[in-house]
From TrEMBL, chain A:
This is Dihydroxyacetone kinase subunit L. GO terms for biological process: glycerol catabolic process. Transmembrane segments: none annotated. Keywords: Kinase, Transferase. SUPFAM superfamilies: DhaL-like. The keyword Kinase applies. One of its GO terms (molecular function) is glycerone kinase activity. Residues 6-206 form the DhaL domain. InterPro entries: DhaK_L_YcgS, DhaL_dom, DhaL_dom_sf, Dihydroxyacetone_Kinase. PANTHER family: TRIOKINASE/FMN CYCLASE (PTHR28629), TRIOKINASE_FMN CYCLASE (PTHR28629:SF4). One of its GO terms (cellular component) is cytosol.
UniProtKB/TrEMBL annotation, chain B:
Residues 154-241 form the HPr domain. This is Phosphoenolpyruvate--protein phosphotransferase. Its EC number is 2.7.3.9. Homodimer. The dihydroxyacetone kinase complex is composed of a homodimer of DhaM, a homodimer of DhaK and the subunit DhaL. Its cofactor is Mg(2+).
Length: 212, 808
């Protein structure tokens, strides 16, 4: 089983729909501990992505990711712009020339992307950032691969891992970004960036295996 | 030169910082900013692509220093570095210095030609001057700049600073630049304090002012050479020899605000005034004096006759002003000047005063002159400078009516050769009447910076200075003089070297202007190759040549009101046809968009009395009035159709459309006119478009687009209607801003509807001439721009820097 290019496109479109729907929720999360723009930013970024990918539907997955990354870079506005932008631009390498991807490819794509995000944001585990989701997601994927699970099982496990990763940020104290100004007061809130990452990860699962 | 890039979440902050830098470095710094994101509703944010573009813009082999405000600005800047090709990114450095102080310090160092390492360390030290002044934190950060005396043998040089502003940024930069290359330890001392002479920030912390004694200390291999270099620089007053010799000659930008406080003493060979319009010109002086007609010696008739006599003169003066307003050759904004004067004349209190005078047995002329003088006097005593400067407007209207009362023809100036005009003051109407080919500069002994004449001179591109005291007495008619509109100087006897400098500066100015104008004639094509038309808004045939000279790709708005306002009777079909035809012909094939009559209660017509309305802007105006009087409207439609049969570059545009039925009614009338004239669509292929200025039209844009051949967005009215705020009411004026998100949204909806329907969408309001808005408008999908002639070159230049792939 593989993930087809059409599913990748559906995934990105579905992210756009989710961020439009969850815009106010994400912004509210951000209002609690940040600068109240995360939902607005993600919504704007993926709206542009949605427009943009209609023009490159016939390209390979690598190009689609690269375009997505470049579009997010210049349209998101907040820190998540360079972060998600880097994610997709780095992820593009493993998708180059491909019309479909298997579990190995997916592991490579996500781990390259996450390496890029970590290098850009310089986050440590437990800093209450989107990386806390991405690390658990990549870990889950690697585990599924090593255990010889199929793609469907891997995606389901990945989705669960993302939920755990996001929930774990609630108890963390922020060390990065605007939320770090709050110190201990940041504890008790789920990190907005971690939440949007979780939404993206779950969206991929839902597009490929259907609603869990 | 090291380039500086400033990255901010806020476009406003970035722009403001650039403004400060340009003022500080006199535009010599190679600075680019990347601020905000392209989302009118949530404009705060950073954009890595914009940072990348900014770096590319200022990059050369000296490298680029990037400073950022905070948060995502850092990530976006790092991301930009990663995206740039290696050969560029290798010479780019990111710098954690404080944003505003750091950029300022870096910009001054970069403008002085210092290498990137020095520029960067200057940026880091950007807070030193402030900390040393406020003394609010541990001196540790400041001490770094102070050097400790060592035992090494040294040479020293003492100097008393004569620079009027002390060792401020520019002289300090000249010291650092001159000394940077010596192998030596170089320090500057004032009193007990001793700092590195190679750091601008450190020099700033010394706070050297005029009259201070400083010591330059050098030790090391090239100490002697450094001392020699410093002493020679000191003798040239660190690059400000001219300023030291003539402290008042150079009002630099930093001092502009305090210029009135600085004593205005004289410069050898020149008279000093205030610069109001850039440029330099040399020529023979001519005097222009307009005098008030004398009150005739005649017997008082009777109150009724005198009052009537006064009203006749008053009315024809008001008419003349309104006519001048609508036919204003320079810019519709300037039409407001004449409208304002017309309002002043219609002031009921003024009229009451005159009538009172007449009832006390004064003849009309005397009563009017008394009332006018009294009003001028009250303006002269006003507290605000702005109001005081309106005094000349009062004298101007007083003279207009006096001319009418006494039967004096309007004074006009016939020049036989290009000359420099000297006058006590010029009224707006006098200024408008000047021929820029013959009047090559203006020098006034009075007048103010914000006076209407100054604004008009600027718009007409004539170099001008005002408040050149005594210029009327010190200059003889025919004497060769030079006006320097940059510095506000009238040169009577310049030294040979000054004259050479001025000649050179004039040539540079002319070349720059020539370049701007010649590039204006080129098509405005974006970087990715799409050409956009930038057209002119005009009020009549006389505006066409200026528009074409400024590179107009046709006329996007011909106001037809002037045809109706200029006559006491309604213009005939034949007359209108001839005017439209002549303008279309003069455009040599470029398109001409004629707007049908747009008047209402706010712009009354002498030839067409209209009921006064409580709320004219929401009343019977534009197409509403035209549809109510089909005969009036059809006369215009027939004239346009006839002209179109000869010149197919004509199209028609209907103002104030709010609903589809109005457009259909216009179509019906045009169809009737076609039948009457026997002109079918092939013979007169008149395209029919509408102005989008009523919010209802925005909301109906999809349906309107099905019936219209094009849209043209009138941002002035659209803004005031969307925001429900009167342009003329100062207490709500902040709402009247086309950058309001709601207005931008309305424009976006309009563009979208037009794009979807496949019809062109143009813009003919003030916003179209704002080059700062070009990027945003292109992103929204605007197809054409139409602006005042003077603004066209800048709009075209801006379009040429755009890349649609990136704005979309």
């Amino acid at each position: 089983m593989t993930i087809e290019k059409s599913q990748i496109l559906n995934w990105l479109n579905s992210c756009a729909d989710i961020f439009a729907k969850e815009r106010d929720y994400l912004t509210q999360l951000d209002a609690d501990i940040g600068d109240a723009d995360h939902g607005i930013n993600m919504n704007r970024g993926f709206e542009r992505v949605k427009d943009k990918i209609t023009t490159i539907e016939d390209q390979d997955i690598g190009t689609i990711f690269k375009t997505t990354g470049m579009t997010l870079l210049s349209s998101v506005g907040g820190a998540s712009g360079p972060l998600y932008g880097t994610f997709f631009i780095r992820a593009a390498a493993a998708g180059n020339g491909k019309q479909s991807i298997d579990l190995n490819d997916l592991c490579q794509i996500f781990s390259d992307g996450v390496d890029g995000v970590v290098a850009r944001g310089k986050a440590q585990p437990g800093d209450k950032t989107m990386c806390d989701v991405w690390w658990t997601v990549v870990e889950a994927l690697e585990k599924s691969k090593d255990e010889g699970q199929d793609l469907q099982q891997a995606l389901v496990a990945m989705g669960e891992a993302s939920e755990k990763g996001a929930a774990a940020t609630i108890e963390m104290q922020a060390k990065k970004g605007r939320a770090s100004y709050l110190g201990e007061r940041s504890i008790g809130h789920q990190d907005p960036g971690a939440t949007s990452s979780m939404m993206m990860v779950k969206a991929l699962r839902d597009v490929v295996v259907g609603q869990a | 030169m090291v380039g500086i890039v400033a990255v901010s979440h806020s476009a406003t902050l970035a722009k403001g910082l650039a403004e400060l830098v340009n003022q500080m470095t006199q535009g010599k710094c190679s600075l680019a900013v990347a601020g905000g994101v392209d989302d009118p509703q949530n404009p705060i944010g950073t954009d890595a692509i914009a940072v990348m573009d900014a770096i590319t813009e200022v990059h050369d082999e000296s490298g680029v220093l990037v400073l950022m405000d905070l948060g995502s600005a850092l990530l976006s800047a790092e991301m930009a570095l990663e995206l740039l090709p290696e050969d560029i990114s290798a010479s780019v450095q990111l710098c954690s210095a404080p944003f505003v102080e750091g950029v300022m310090a870096a910009a001054v160092a970069a403008a002085a030609g210092l290498p990137i390492a020095t520029v960067k360390s200057e940026a880091y030290g950007g807070l030193q001057g402030k900390q040393s002044h406020l003394q609010d934190c541990e001196p540790a950060t400041v001490v770094d700049s102070e050097t400790k005396a060592s035992d090494e043998p040294f040479l020293s040089f003492d100097w008393t600073v004569e620079n009027p502003h002390g060792l401020h940024a520019r002289p300090a930069a000249s010291i650092v630049t001159a000394l940077a290359s010596f192998k030596a330890t170089l320090e500057l001392a004032k009193g007990e304090r001793r700092v590195s002479a190679l750091s601008l920030n450190s020099i700033a912390t010394l706070g050297v002012v005029k009259g201070d004694e400083i010591t330059f200390i050098a030790s090391g291999e090239q100490a002697q050479q450094a001392i020699d270099a410093f002493s020679s620089l000191a003798n040239q007053h660190f690059g400000e020899a001219q300023l030291v010799a003539n402290p008042s000659a150079q009002l630099d930008a930093i001092d502009n605000k305090v210029e009135e406080a600085i004593d205005m003493h004289e410069i050898a060979g020149a008279l000093r005034g205030l610069a109001v319009s850039d440029g330099i010109a040399k020529g023979p002086a001519v005097f222009f004096s307009v005098s008030m007609p004398e009150v005739p010696k005649r017997e008082f008739t009777d109150a009724k006759t005198e009052i009537q006599r006064f009203h006749t003169a008053l009315n024809s003066s008001v008419d003349a002003l309104q006519q001048q307003a609508s036919a204003s050759a320079v810019d519709p904004e300037h039409a407001q000047i004449f409208n304002a004067q017309a309002l002043m004349l219609s002031d009921p209190e003024l009229v009451v005063n005159v009538e009172k005078g007449i009832r006390s047995q004064l003849i009309a002329e005397q009563a009017w002159l008394d009332a006018g003088s009294q009003l001028a006097d009250s303006y002269q005593r006003a507290e605000s400078e702005y109001l005081r400067e309106r005094e000349s407007d009062v004298w101007d209207i007083t003279r207009r009516v006096m001319n009418q009362l006494c039967g004096v023809e309007k004074a006009s100036l016939e020049l036989k050769q290009p000359s420099i005009l000297l006058a006590k003051d010029l009224s707006p109407s006098d200024t408008m009447g000047l021929d820029p080919e013959m009047v090559i500069a203006i020098c006034l002994s009075e007048g103010g910076k914000t006076s209407h004449s100054a604004i008009l001179a600027k718009a007409m591109g004539i170099p001008a200075i005002v408040q050149a005291n005594d210029c009327m007495n010190r200059v003889k008619a025919g004497q060769q003089v030079i006006v320097d509109g940059f510095k506000g100087l009238l040169w009577l006897e310049p030294s040979v070297s000054t004259e050479n400098e001025l000649t050179l500066a004039r040539q540079q100015w002319l070349e720059k202007r020539e370049l701007e104008l010649s590039s204006a004639l080129q098509t405005a094509t974006t970087l990715d190759g799409r050409a956009f038309e930038v057209q002119a808004n005009i009020g009549g045939l006389s505006d066409v040549s200026l528009a074409l000279k400024n590179g107009a790709d046709g006329v996007g708005l011909l106001r037809t009101e002037f045809l109706f306002q200029a006559c006491s009777e309604l213009p005939s079909q034949q007359y209108q046809y001839e005017v439209y035809r002549d303008i279309a012909k003069a455009l040599e094939g470029r398109s001409l968009t004629i707007r049908s009559l747009d008047v209402g209660g706010d712009k009354p017509l002498a030839s067409y009395p209209m009921a006064s309305e409580e709320n004219p802007f929401l009343g019977h105006r534009g197409i509403r009035m035209c549809l109510a009087d089909p005969e009036l409207f059809k006369t215009q439609l027939r004239a346009v159709l006839r002209a179109c049969a000869e010149y197919s570059n004509i199209q028609l545009m209907i103002p104030m459309i709010a609903q589809v039925s109005e457009l259909l009614a216009v179509k019906q009338l045009i169809a009737e006119c076609r039948l009457e004239l026997k002109l079918n669509e092939q013979q007169a292929p008149l395209k029919l478009g509408i102005m989008i200025e009523v919010p209802a039209a925005v909301l109906n844009a999809d349906e309107l687009a099905e019936h219209a051949d094009f849209f043209s967005i009138g941002t002035n009215d659209l803004t005031q209607y969307v925001m429900a705020a009167d342009r003329g009411n100062p207490s709500v004026s902040q709402l009247v801003d086309y950058q309001q998100p709601a207005v931008l949204k309305a424009i976006e909806l309009t563009c979208k509807a037009a794009n979807q329907a496949g019809i062109p969408v143009s813009m003919c309001g003030e916003m179209a001439g704002d080059s700062e808005m070009v990027e945003r408008l292109l992103a929204m999908g605007l197809d054409k721009f139409s602006a005042s002639a003077a603004l066209i070159p800048a709009v075209k230049a801006k379009i040429r820097t755009q890349n649609l792939v990136s704005v979309n």
